[in-house]
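Q: Okay, next protein. This is DUF4870 domain-containing protein from Peribacillus deserti. I've checked the sequence twice, so it should be correct. Can you predict the 3D structure?
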Amino acid sequence: MDTNKILASLSYFSIFFAPFLLPIILYFVSDDYFVKEHSKKALVSHLIPFLGILFIILGAVGDFTGGGLPIFSFLGVGLYGLLCFIVLIWNIVKGIKVLK
């Protein structure tokens, strides 16, 4: 098996143990274009859940301004959980595809 394929797939699988650290290290240390490209994509996919926190913040703001039931907060948390699950599955699928 090719070492570059293993490193590229490891950048996707690093969502389980070092989500930001390993793709950044692989991007700056590796000289191979294949590894750099996949580590950059993996880093972006690992950053997506942090942008999803906006769902929760906007939901909380909507609940505090309107009063009543915290429906928007529950909706924000639900959408955030769904987003995290989709990103996790996407990273697993991309890591397996890179190994093939």
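A: Here is a summary of the prediction. The chain has one domain: 3-99. The mean pLDDT is 84.
Q: Noted. On to the next one.
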